Every structure is written in C-alpha cells, then in structure tokens.
Request: fold
Amino acid sequence: MLTRRPLVALSFALPALLLYSVIVIYPLFSGAYLSLTDSSGGPKADFVGLDNYVRLFGDGDVWDALRVTLLYAVVVVVFQNLFGLLLARGLYNRPRARKIVTAFVLLPSLVAPVMAAFIFSYIFAPEGALNSFLGAIGLDSLQRVWLGDPSTALFAVAAVNIWGFAGYSGIIYLAGYSAIDKDVLNAAAIDGASGFSRFRYIEWPLITPALTVNLALNVIGALRVFELPLVMTNGGPANSTTTITMLIYRNLFGSAGGFAYATALAVFFLLLVVVVAVTMTTLLRARERRMF
Amino acid sequence: MATRTLARPNWIGGSFAVAWLLIILLPVYLMVRAALESRAAYTSGGPLAPPTEFTLENFGLSFELGFGHYLLNAAIITVGTVAIVLVLVPPLAYAIVRSRSRGVKTVFRLLLIGLAIPAQVVVIPLYYLINSIGLYDSLLGVILPTAAFVIPLTTLILTGSMREINNELYEAISMDGAGPIRTFFTLVVPLSRGGIATIIVYSALNAWNGFLLPLILTRSPEVMVATVGLSSFRQQYSVNIPGLMSAVILTIIPIFVVYLFARRSLVAGLMGVGGK
Reply:
C-alpha cells in the first residue's frame, strides 16, 4: 500500500514536483539572488547586497503603489463579499430562481481579465455606454471621464473585478448555506425569529468557513490584479491605478537598468502577499474555532 | 439540497439577484450589439441606440488581421497544458491523499503557499530559463510554465475529491493483491472522475485566458495568443470599437461553449472549496 511506502508515494509525486521546482521554485530563488545584484538584463551583474531594497523603501512610487493596491483590495473584497452574500441569501431559499441565476453568475469569472478590461474600457469611455445611459435618463451631471479622472479610475477598475467575481463568491456562500441544517432554519422560523436575527445568529456563524475561503481568495486575487489596470488605464491617470504589479511591469520594460530593481520589488510583493494571506487565514481560522 | 425552508425567502437578496443578473448580462449585450454593427452605423447611433442593421464584416476584419491564427495558438497551448496537468496532477494528488509520510504532507503545505505566488515574481528569471533551454518564442515555452503554475490549484481541487473515496475500497482492492499502480488506475482514477473533470476545466481556462506568461515568453506573431494579440491590435482598433468587440467575442465564445458543458464540474469544484 502507498500509505506505508514513502518511496513509492514519492515516485507518484515526483514528476509534478519536478516540473514545479524547475519552472517556479528555481526562478523564485534565482530571482531573489538577482534582486541582490545590479543586473540590467545583460550577462554582467555585480553583487550589491541590499541596495535595491534600501532604494525601494525610500521610493515614493512604491509607497504610492502600495496605497493604491491596498485601497483597491479593500474596495474589491468588501463589495465582492457583500454582493456575494446578498446573492446567496436571496437564492438559497428559492430553488427555481437559484437554478436560473446560478446558471449565469459564474460566466463573468470565466472571461479573461484582458477581455473584461476591453469590454469595460468601451463601456466607461467618454462616449461610451455608461455616459450615454446616464444622459438618457437625465443624469448628465453624473457623467464622467471614468477612466481619465484620478478620483474615479481606480473604482472603475475595481468595478470590473467585482463584476467578474461577486458571482464566484456568491456560489461559495451558497455552498456554505447548503451545508446549514434545514431543521435549524425551520425551528428559528417557527419560533418567529426575524430575518435579521436569523442571519446574525444562525446563518452568519454557520457560513464562517465560506467566509474564510472567500476572504482569502479575494484578497490574494485583488492584490495580484494586473491585466485590468494594464489594459484599462495603463496605471494612469496620474498613477492613480498604478498597483504594485503595474510598477513591477513598468520597471521591467520601462527605464533602463530597472531589471534588478523590478525583481527586488517583485520579491517584496511576494512577501506582502504571503504575509497578508497567512495572517488572514490564521486570524479567520482562529475565529472559526471560537465560533464552534 | 435545493429544498425550501419554512422561512420566507429574503426579498432584499432576491431583488439583488435579479439586478445582478442584469448587470452581468448588460455588458455582454452591449458587446454583441457593437460587434454586429457596421462601423458607420455604430458611430452615428452610439452605444445605446437599438441596432439598425447586422453585419459580420467586423469578424471578417479580425480574421484578416490574423486573429484566427492567435486563436489557434491559444487552443494549442490550452490542449498542451491540459495534457500535462492530466498526466502529472492525479498521481501527485493520490500520493498526497494516501501517503502518511511527513515529507509528502510538507510538500502539500508548500504547494498551498504556491497558490499565493504571483507570476510577476518569477517572470524575469523564468524568461532567462526558458531562453537558455531554447524554448523562448515557442508554444512549448508557454505550455510548460502555464501547466506548472496551475499545479497548486488543481492539486488542491483534486485532493479534495480524492479524499471522499472510502477507505474500505482501498482495503478491499489491497486484499485483492493490487499494488499502488493498479489501485491508482482501477480505483482512484475512476472514482475521482468528477474532480478530474474539474481540473481539466480549470487548467483549460487558465491556459486560454493566460496573458502575462505568453506576453513575456513570446515575441513573434506566429506564436502569439489571442489575449496578447488583442492588446497589440489595440492601436489599429482604437477608433474601431465594433472590430475590437468582434475579436473579444471570438475569444470568449469557446469559453461559453465549455461552460455550457462543464458548468456542473465548475460549480462542484467551487462548492467543494466552500462547503468545507
């Protein structure tokens, strides 16, 4: 049996691990080394220690990008979960509506981010569908150059993310709801518990695992956003949508000699994502244990 | 699972669900509408006016600009990625689920951290690596990294579905004298068909929708994929919304078709993640 033969087990695991190590782990470490040099892409590179990291902490662009990325993540995570929860709560108790709506809600999450970005660039364009619609219903005063105005661009990009993945979150919440014992909900309804108190005291604690999964997936996804700002705004206007991933990209292909610096930025970014992800799952798991 | 409870359905959530359905479908409608209209009609009518005439000339233009070739490349990369994932991931998931060795468990935990690794972090060294083994600007040079990056997620999904196989079945087949390989092929693979279908869909989606890896690892139009090709079309298309939308539709249609057939496994995969 496989259970008692580590070497046999290893041989089953080995091919996949080999590919993963060569393509992901090895570049990860050689990237970490590259970030300690002054490489500009050519073969000549000198070891410079932590110079790139020192530069990084004094770089105003990095702090700006960090602020943009975190704001983006907060907006996306809050609305994706709010909408996802509303969907699940509206549907779990309506079998027929649930069938129809769930047939569609996953679709946007399957569309490539690049494609979604193109569709919405066109909707948010100055002469695009959104402004035409606002004009048609007499709300001309709300018309904006959505992607060209620093105060709206980041939210317009976030809206596409939310459009794509709120349904995805909703399906995960629905799974949480279908794991709730129906007798518990029925008992509460017979006892005359109001909708809100049913939600607060029965549903909310019981969908905790779904909340954990959603928050973790959404935060990681939002921090890693790249194609949406790249296509929709290219980081602009006035850097208001320059996320960390955009800044890495710009350092890679933009200014000369940014290669090693871009790698340092990428390593810093990886640490950020891992720290946020691990902290969050730890906190959320602890919360789950308190609740049960 | 889908039975009503005595509690009255929540009307705020219910109305939101209807509104959300519209919000999802509206951009799709606008896109299709723009793609089916001639440029002249589009420019004069604007994005909201009901379509006056239908034409397929925009799709023709996309093919003339070589978009068909980009779609073919994306399809080859998708098939290649799925093939590699199918060969590598089921044995890995089997080893993780059935082995009690600590090494294998540790590997699984490290793979989960791999879920968080953004491709941006490794693209530069990866570019050097792919270049040095002579795969730069080739389809295989995109397939291998795409498959590698999808290993953590697909392994997570498949271990979830393999854990549901009853222990007694393993004992029974072991009494029969089956070794690990026969157990794998006659018991594990047939009983985790659902999970395998899900990882096929996920890896195909990842490959078809991939952007950063083909962007960094290819250069010439012969190996360009649809997502990257579209971005490079942008200049030619900047004033031609119908043309752009037709190319977007061509890229999305295969996904919708897959979705029609694979919706169950997609939802099942997500439900498995959320219900536990």
About this structure: Residues 259-291 of chain A form the longest helix (33 residues). The CA atoms of residues 22 and 285 of chain A lie 33 Å apart. Chain A is about 75% helix and 0% strand.
